[in-house]
DNA sequence: CTGTTAGCGCTTTCAT
DNA sequence: ATGAAAGCGCTAACAG
């Protein structure tokens, strides 16, 4: 309420008849101060409503207790899960999170990185707006020149040289494709070639390429019997809906539809529903769990990844690199699991 | 890669043969510097990879471009939506977000606030772990003593004296109850008293009380015909499931079940499903949208609130108060909409 | 155990 | 249009 010029350690020092440094010590390294004085100081700090100034401290000892998280979207529940894990674990190690939702805008990503650098963030968990090879953001040099630890999560830059925690995308694609072969009867009625529709992310996205590669490998032996059609999108719901709608209009119902992430799969399901095509007319599979559907007895077979674990691992790796800047760059791969 | 002692404005100054202050000005108030010099300075800054030090700046001018967001959970999609809005709008005004997920732990909430104060955050959007009257956190004094602008979001502290953006909970409860009366045939078969099961949050939670109050008002004329049973929980899924399961075992299937938030409603549905009770045997209604269900043709009538709008309003209000510390404390109410 | 000194990087006077 | 000096709040490094 009161105007209250900010209370500093000097105020406390005056209050208890000591000098700044003693107060500083009492508050930060209590063991270096006589218990009696310490208590008086702590008491005074409380009374005066002292709040340490992170800027002053950060300026002096150029290290911060800040970890930056830069992600393309909070909408995606999979990302929300990873962020939850990061946040929880960061807290345990006494780091605060500075979160940037870049909204898929490369410029916002760039300013986010700069802000983090200016705040001397100790570490950065980065999931860039794009994992296409020609996305080579200009902030990379600055990031490299700084001594901030960096771990990429899920999406990775090409040749960035930073550590990463990624999903086993090849495996996921393969696994789903095998499931289709074995369980969902693809390529088992020989009257005509089966069509598998894969609804993907951007054409050059690494994640999309890897997942597709997995599909192709799994189906390579069936090359004569299965045609793979691919629709390119951007991992969000809306384009998936319109694209699938369009495809259905043009080519009819394929034998199976594979959505390369959660939102895409939902989009495909939506398009099917709009077109009045029942779940029994085609087989829909995906990557990432569709939340809560089990409650309604709806099953969409999919490879699910443990986002919480991925986030936690990213943070662990980051801590390792923060402790030891020489630590080897490494890529951890999180493998999913088929849930039918 | 290089060792790279940090580049400061002094380095730039040396590089271009000017003094610190000129460099500072060139970078912050370009109009005060001759265009030629300015360009040379900007050029040098780029070359040397200069990154401004937010701590030094913050220390000097005690204002920051930081807005803190403290919330009990990122799990809740409704909160994720609000945070998305906050983040997007903050960015537009050139503020960075410092996000704290308190995991419903009051101590974490308290340290989050202290961290924000120490970082001189310009504003704080707070959704505390509890909105029960006896939750009077100790950080309140510090918050009041500081000059940080505060806006509460959704959950509010009792008598805190801070502005807030809240939902029209009374209306939501009323609206759903009226729907039950009019459409869902509650109190229309007179053979026996109808039972309405409300699955709520904590017993003393303001939001729960308000929503319940709405229900009671709406049904007051039917006091003789409708019994309202209430189960207390904590707005999360798991307890809702077990409580409803238990209730069903004890009292059988009620005429209708009203989940006071999204996760609770899902929990109730899950319990019903586990008990093998079909959607036709009771009427389930809720507050907050159950995402994506329309894709599967599942409808759960509910009052939905626009989380994005609520978040955006909270940030707007915060900006108002940051600009004018004298601005009047105010409470904005966001009304939902019944979706059937 | 406590104090002195000095300086982190930047910006605000007030001069020139 | 540019510069000199001073200081924001805090903490290393060295004394005592």
Automatic annotation (TrEMBL), chains A, B:
Q: Which Pfam families match?
A: LacI, Peripla_BP_4
PROSITE patterns recorded for this chain? HTH_LACI_2
Which SUPFAM superfamilies does the UniProt record give?
Answer: lambda repressor-like DNA-binding domains, Periplasmic binding protein-like I
| Domain of life assignment | Bacteria
Domain HTH lacI-type, first and last residues per copy: 7-61
Q: What are the GO MF terms of this UniProt record?
A: DNA-binding transcription factor activity; transcription cis-regulatory region binding
Segments forming a coiled coil: none
Asked if the keyword Repressor belongs to this entry, the reply reads yes
What keywords does the record list, in alphabetical order? DNA-binding, Repressor, Transcription, Transcription regulation
Listed under GO biological process in this entry are: transmembrane transport
Supply the name of the protein: LacI family transcriptional regulator
Question: Species name for this entry?
Answer: Kushneria indalinina DSM 14324
């Amino acid at each position: 309420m009161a105007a209250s010029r900010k209370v500093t350690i000097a105020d406390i020092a005056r209050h208890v008849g000591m000098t700044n440094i003693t107060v500083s010590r009492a508050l930060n390294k209590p063991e270096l101060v006589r218990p009696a004085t310490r208590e008086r100081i702590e008491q005074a700090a409380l009374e005066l409503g002292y709040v340490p100034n992170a800027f002053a401290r950060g300026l002096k000892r150029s290290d911060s207790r800040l970890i930056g998280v830069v992600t393309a979207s909070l909408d995606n529940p999979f990302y929300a899960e990873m962020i939850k894990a990061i946040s929880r674990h960061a807290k345990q190690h006494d780091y605060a999170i500075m979160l940037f939702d870049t909204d898929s805008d490369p410029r916002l990503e760039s300013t986010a990185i700069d802000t983090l650098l200016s705040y001397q963030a100790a570490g950065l968990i980065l999931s860039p707006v794009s994992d296409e090879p020609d996305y080579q953001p200009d902030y990379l040099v600055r990031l490299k020149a700084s001594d901030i630890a960096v771990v990429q999560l899920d999406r990775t830059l090409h040749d960035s040289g930073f550590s990463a925690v990624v999903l086993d995308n090849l495996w996921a694609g393969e696994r789903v494709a095998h499931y289709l072969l074995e369980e969902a009867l693809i390529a088992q009625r020989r009257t005509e070639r089966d069509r598998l529709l894969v609804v993907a992310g951007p054409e050059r996205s690494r994640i999309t390429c890897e997942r597709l590669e997995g599909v192709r490998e799994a189906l390579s032996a069936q090359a004569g019997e299965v045609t793979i059609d691919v629709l390119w999108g951007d991992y969000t719901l809306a384009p998936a809906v319109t694209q699938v709608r369009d495809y259905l209009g043009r080519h009819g119902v394929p034998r199976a539809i594979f959505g390369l992430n959660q939102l895409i799969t939902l989009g495909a399901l939506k398009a099917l529903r709009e077109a009045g095509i029942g779940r029994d007319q085609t087989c829909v599979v995906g990557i990432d769990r569709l939340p809560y559907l089990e409650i309604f007895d709806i099953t969409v077979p999919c490879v699910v990844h443990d986002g919480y674990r991925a986030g936690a691992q990213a943070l662990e790796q980051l801590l390792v690199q923060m402790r030891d800047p020489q630590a080897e760059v490494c890529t951890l791969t999180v493998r999913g699991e088929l849930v039918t």
